[in-house]
């Protein structure tokens, strides 16, 4: 009998997760099946209990449940505590254990593009929401040299930095302060929703003077594949990385937590590009 897996969220119709996970099960000869379920905020607890009763092996969690889901789980991995949110749950002997693979997924998507050791990398993260928190904590834990944080609401960035248990140097700036900042960055990470379709002409800040041909500029958005922010990065000669890498790597990490097997990330990436091409 196939082991059951799911992603729960609302909306969920455009999720590409079933496609890549089911292909990976098939490709690796694993008896698994992954389905997307639309679950409203009101029925979250019931959905989680139902999946336990049906002995689901694991599930992914997406907007708007990544934080609320935590109160219905039996325990949390450090990755979930650090991110303050859960995107992956595994059934360990009848107990739900929550993880967060977004931060490590992001790191995997840039690690082989870095031109120097992580300890020497100076990064800046734009945004201080859920996605930013997971990425910040992952990079801090791995010993990155320095991370500046830029956010519209300064207090949110201060809290994020204060709550991270891995002390890391770096300053906190408003969007305006960043624009007049003179620093050059090795890695720039855009984590806000600004520039996402249909508002494709928008970008949170300008990168002028802050990146060069060795800098990596990553946007966690993958629709469009090239945001206005990434277009500017390319014009400035930087290496632009879209959100597809983070998406497939977080999925691959979830898959590994569930099955103890590493899926073919290249294959997952191709499937996502095919699907996104078809959608535009
Ligand atoms: P996620 O979980 O996807 O990170 P979130 O927690 O809602 O989403 O965080 C969204 C981030 O985008 C925040 O950094 C937010 O800035 P604020 O903390 O000031 O709200 C940022 N953001 C969203 N819309 C924005 C806008 N129009 N201008 C500037 N920043 C924006």
Can you offer a commentary on this structure?
- With 280 residues, the chain is an alpha/beta fold.
- It has two domains: 3-100 and 245-279, Leucine Dehydrogenase, chain A, domain 1 (Rossmann fold, 3-Layer(aba) Sandwich); 104-242, 3-Layer(aba) Sandwich (Rossmann fold), CATH 3.40.50.
- The chain is 38% helix and 19% strand.
- The chain has ten helices and twelve strands.
- The protein has helices at residues 17-28, 44-53, 78-83, 102-111, 130-141, 154-163, 175-180, 228-235, 244-259, 265-279; strands spanning 3-9, 32-38, 58-61, 75-76, 88-92, 95-99, 122-126, 146-150, 172-173, 187-190, 216-219, 239-241.
- The strands form two sheets. It has a six-stranded mixed beta sheet with strand order 2-1-3-5-6-4.
- β1, α1 and β2 (32-38) form a beta-alpha-beta unit.
- The longest helix has 16 residues, at 244-259.
- It is globular and about 60 Å long.
- The site of 2'-monophosphoadenosine-5'-diphosphate has 15 residues, from α5.
């Amino acid at each position: 009998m196939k082991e059951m897996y799911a992603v729960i969220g609302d909306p969920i119709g455009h999720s590409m997760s079933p496609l890549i996970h089911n292909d990976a099960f098939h490709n690796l000869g694993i008896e698994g099946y992954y389905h997307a379920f639309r679950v409203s905020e009101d029925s979250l607890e019931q959905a989680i209990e139902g999946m336990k009763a049906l002995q689901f092996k694991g599930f992914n969690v997406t907007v708007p449940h990544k934080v609320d889901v935590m109160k219905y789980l039996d325990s949390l991995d450090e990755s979930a505590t650090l991110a303050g949110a859960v995107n992956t749950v595994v059934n360990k002997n009848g107990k739900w254990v929550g993880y967060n693979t977004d931060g490590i997924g992001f790191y995997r998507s840039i690690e082989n593009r870095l031109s120097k050791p992580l300890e020497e990398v100076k990064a800046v993260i734009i945004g201080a929401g859920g996605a930013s928190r997971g990425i910040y904590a992952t990079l801090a834990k791995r010993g990155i040299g320095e991370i500046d944080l830029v956010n519209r609401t300064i207090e949110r960035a201060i809290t994020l930095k204060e709550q991270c248990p891995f002390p890391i140097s770096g300053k906190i700036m408003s969007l305006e302060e960043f624009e007049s900042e003179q620093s050059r960055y090795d890695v720039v990470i855009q984590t806000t929703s600004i520039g996402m379709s249909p508002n494709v002409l928008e970008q949170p800040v300008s990168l002028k003077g802050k990146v060069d041909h060795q800098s990596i500029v990553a946007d966690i958005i993958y629709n469009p594949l090239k945001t206005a922010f990434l277009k500017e990065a390319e014009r400035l000669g930087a290496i632009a990385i879209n959100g597809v890498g983070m998406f497939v790597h977080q999925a691959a990490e979830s898959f590994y937590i569930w099955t103890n097997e590493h899926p073919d990330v290249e294959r997952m990436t191709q499937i996502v590009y095919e699907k996104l091409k078809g959608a535009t």
